[in-house]
């Protein structure tokens, strides 16, 4: 395995392979706070592009969360994998998905996010006829791949393994060529003022672009995600967006969203 030269805190030269370097980056982010690309590049005596690749891999693995110019630890609020999320709030997600399916009309063009709740909606759409679905999520692709009545467009890009969703400039470039009747967005947390909370700024930028391309914007979030801010990256949403949650959502929390001008549905 190729090893690269770095320097310990005591000034002694040592050799680190890529795995050891990434483990050290995670330790630093956990112990000392946000890790900056330039600082890490100097510390480990590698190029900035090498550090960026390390951070991308660590983010995909759910070990770090990207920030502008670096990364932060996710030890306090680790991002769950899509597989882990599939078993969370199962009945609530099914109710949300069924309500969302009822809003879709034949002939419409839809945009579907990645995530387990949006994936549940994709399953419901298997019975739809004459609709077009564009998506950034592998779950939706898998659900609709064999449904002849649904035209499916994959926006492509860089795959985030942890969320099974595509992000990045290629995704954004494809998105700019389309408009939609409705967009259905997932979230790690949703706030009445700040909007959608996600692990990476790259995700929040994409969600803002998605919301801006659709006539109607729906955020699908079960009650446990309301008012939550597990990370520090936010996507602002346009006025008049819809929050679709479940029956267990507290009245006080629903009132906060309604006061902010959000239309709330408890499915």
Automatic annotation (TrEMBL):
Repressor of the lactose catabolism operon. Galactose-6-phosphate is the inducer. SUPFAM superfamilies: NagB/RpiA/CoA transferase-like, Winged helix' DNA-binding domain. Keywords: DNA-binding, Repressor, Transcription, Transcription regulation. Residues 18-73 form the HTH deoR-type domain. GO terms for molecular function: DNA binding. The keyword Transcription regulation applies. This is Lactose phosphotransferase system repressor. InterPro entries: Carb_Metab_HTH_regulators, DeoR-like_C, DeoR_HTH, NagB/RpiA_transferase-like, WH_DNA-bd_sf. It comes from Saxibacter everestensis. SMART domains: DeoRC (SM01134), HTH_DEOR (SM00420).
């Amino acid at each position: 395995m190729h090893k690269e030269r770095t320097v310990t805190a005591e000034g002694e030269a040592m050799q680190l392979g890529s795995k050891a370097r990434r483990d050290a980056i995670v330790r630093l982010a956990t112990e000392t706070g946000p890790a900056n690309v330039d600082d890490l590049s100097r510390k480990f005596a590698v190029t900035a592009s090498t550090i960026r690749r390390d951070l991308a891999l660590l983010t995909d693995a759910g070990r770090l969360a990207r920030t502008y110019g670096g990364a932060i630890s996710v030890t306090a609020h680790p991002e769950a994998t899509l597989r882990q999320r599939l078993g969370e709030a199962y009945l609530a997600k099914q109710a949300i998905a069924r309500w969302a399916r009822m809003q879709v009309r034949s002939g419409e063009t839809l945009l579907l996010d990645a995530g387990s709740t949006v994936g549940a909606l994709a399953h419901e759409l298997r019975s739809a006829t004459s609709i077009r679905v564009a998506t950034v999520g592998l779950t939706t692709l898998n659900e609709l791949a064999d449904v002849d009545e649904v035209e499916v467009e994959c926006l492509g890009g860089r795959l985030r393994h942890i969320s099974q969703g595509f992000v990045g400039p290629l995704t954004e470039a494809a998105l700019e060529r389309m408009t939609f009747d409705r967009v259905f967005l997932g979230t790690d947390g949703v706030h009445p003022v700040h909007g959608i909370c996600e692990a990476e700024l790259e995700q929040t930028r994409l969600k803002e672009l998605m919301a801006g391309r659709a006539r109607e914007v729906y955020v699908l979030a079960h009650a446990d995600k309301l008012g939550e801010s597990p990370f520090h990256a936010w996507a602002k949403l346009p006025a008049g967006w819809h929050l679709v949650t479940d029956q267990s959502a507290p009245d006080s929390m629903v009132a906060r969203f309604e006061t902010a001008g959000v239309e709330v549905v408890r499915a």
